[in-house]
Write a structure and sequence with these properties.
Length: 580
């Protein structure tokens, strides 16, 4: 590593600059001369850098957000770009991108998240449980199931099955979550709805009584904050439920003011999420929509932050827009971030961006996204041989690294450590199930999750080896990935739990793992290796699919505490902190 630039205090000062503020950019390098190559107002400027101890530096105002730049080293006749050395000047896409404030709050950098699907984590109050036949959903009576009763996944069965999980159940298990090492809870929707997933809410300003209502929410927020933990809610602002009063007014009276909040077509149909008629899309071309959902005092974006939520995960963030499309999407996302920060300067707002995150994140919109395309998808394809759709794929170790590196280096500097990395979620099959129950490969997936740059998100139950009930030959994510948490500890995989706790502890207590940049180390057919670096600390991470010899300098094995060096034989995960 001769030349290095990433988001750490030596390289960027201050780390969170204001627009127009003077900043210092430094390059760690043995070179004694170099230039900053800066894209400014459509022109490329070449500015000489000053030699300092450890590298080169330059001071300049933060002209724009993002600020786009790279470096040129004349003695080596090369450019240092975000993804490495290049002989020719690259496209702007390969430049470093630095954002102005507002951006990621410090508490979210490398933070350990835990995602809970509320109906399935724990039933803390059986008295508020939905009852079989209590209401109809899509023409079918809902079903109350016993906690350990298997999920059904026939047509239409998914959303009508209720198990009684609630916020009081989460409250009861905060000791468990804190002992695990969790710092942030991310909850799937908690609003009143006819479905168990609650992505089709009929009321955006209150908690579903079947989850304990507003009183349980207040107690949960208070208890979390007392422990120093945070709460992120699922913000469903692309669409609402068709039973919501606003949509019902629009449906029955085309002249009602509420009708302008939706996109109706000449044939009487309307824009809906993926065409699902229970999920009509909001039209943000209408000022009333913006006022009612995002901007006004009582808009849910503001309301729940004032109530104590610490941020938002925005459902299908890339789809929000005008006229049933994603038109003006970036402006809408900026407004959500702006209004959240107005209510709480430390609010975090990240999005569900399943595919290419770059057009959105480089537009100075969000604090990050769920890292499917740049982490979860390639990693699990490499380990399982199938993608999220169940298609057979063949991702080599080289292709895995190329994808991880490509996405990492393309991110704005401030967002590299706040991307929500994951291996499972409520929308995709559980990682252990995708690996056909192979615990060692699952532990390797957890190991990469908790040593790679970003804010790792555990999906409830992954830490105890929660699987899915359907056979592997019957590919299914939703709803089978949403099984109930088994609180009988005899059903837990204690080996996985101990492993997960150890990895979380290392993530939280090793600065290079929590905040550090990423550099390539070693890639071969069955071995992935990468470096994490922060403020002089260097950690090497290896993931070996079969027994492999690696050469190490003097280092501490962070998994065992032993001092090692020279030739080391590895299988699975290895984490080594170099000794200075």
């Amino acid at each position: 590593m001769r030349h290095y630039h990433d988001w750490e205090p030596f390289c960027v000062d201050p780390l969170r600059p204001e627009l127009g503020q003077e900043i210092t950019l430094r390059l760690k390098t043995p070179a004694k001369e170099g230039f900053l190559i800066l894209e400014r107002y459509g022109e490329v400027e070449r500015r000489p850098m000053k030699a300092i101890a450890g590298g080169l530096e330059i001071r300049l105002p933060l002209y724009s957000s993002p600020l786009r730049y790279c470096f040129f080293l004349p003695q080596e006749k090369t450019y240092l770009t975000a993804d490495g050395l290049r002989g020719a000047l690259p496209r702007y896409d390969k430049f470093f991108h630095l954002l102005a404030q507002p951006t990621v709050p410090d508490w979210a950098v490398g933070a350990v998240f835990y995602q809970i699907f509320p109906d399935r984590f724990r039933n803390g109050n059986p008295h508020n449980d939905p009852q079989t036949g209590e209401w109809l959903y899509q023409g079918r009576p809902i079903v109350k199931k016993d906690w350990d009763e298997p999920l059904g996944y026939g047509p239409g069965e998914g959303p009508i099955q209720h198990y009684g999980g609630d916020l009081e159940g989460i409250l009861e298990k905060l000791d468990y979550l804190q002992d695990l090492g969790v710092e942030v809870l991310y909850l799937n929707p908690i609003l009143p709805s006819g479905s168990n997933h609650r992505y089709d809410a009929r009321d955006y300003l209150n908690v579903d009584p079947h989850l304990g209502g507003n009183e349980a929410f207040d107690r949960l927020v208070e208890a979390l904050h007392r422990r120093g933990m945070k709460l992120v809610l699922d913000g469903v602002f692309n669409h609402i439920g068709n039973s919501h009063p606003d949509f019902q007014k629009a449906l029955h009276d085309p002249t009602a003011p509420e009708a302008g909040q939706f996109t109706f077509y000449a044939d009487g149909s309307y824009a809906a999420f993926f065409g699902v008629k229970t999920l009509p899309k909001l039209d943000y071309a209408n000022p009333l929509t913006v006022e009612r959902w995002l901007d006004g005092y009582h808009a849910p974006v503001r309301h729940w932050i004032r109530k104590g939520a610490d941020g938002w995960r925005l459902d299908v963030a890339h789809q929000m827009g005008e006229g049933g499309t994603d038109r003006r999407n970036s402006e809408i996302l900026r407004l959500i971030k702006h209004n959240s920060v107005e209510e709480n300067p430390e609010a975090l707002v990240f999005g569900e961006l399943f595919f290419d995150t770059l057009p959105t994140l480089r537009a100075h919109t969000l604090d990050g996204s769920m890292h499917y395309a740049g982490f979860a998808n390639p990693l699990m394809e490499w380990l399982s041989g199938k993608n999220v759709y169940g298609w057979d794929v063949a991702v080599s170790t080289e292709e895995l690294w190329e994808t991880l590196w490509d996405h990492y280096t393309a991110l704005p500097l401030q967002l590299r450590q706040s991307m929500y990395t994951l291996i499972s979620s409520h929308d995709i099959p559980r990682a252990l199930w995708r690996l056909k129950g192979d615990v060692e490969r699952f532990k390797l997936a957890l190991g990469i999750l908790l040593t790679f740059p970003g804010a790792p998100g555990l999906y409830y139950g992954d830490e105890i080896g929660l699987d899915q009930a359907n056979p592997y030959t019957d590919w299914n994510g939703d709803p089978m990935c949403r099984g109930t948490f088994p609180w009988d500890e005899r059903r837990w995989n204690k080996e996985v739990l101990t492993w997960t706790k150890k990895l979380i502890w290392l993530k939280k207590n090793t600065p290079a793992l929590r905040r550090g940049g990423l550099q390539p180390l070693q890639v071969s057919e069955k071995l992935l290796g990468y470096k994490r670096l922060y403020d002089g600390e260097e950690v090497w991470v290896y993931a070996a699919l079969e027994p492999t010899e690696v050469q190490l300098p003097q280092a501490e094995n962070l998994l065992t505490g032993q001092r090692v060096g020279g030739s080391v034989r590895l299988l699975g995960l290895g984490i080594f902190r170099l000794l200075r």
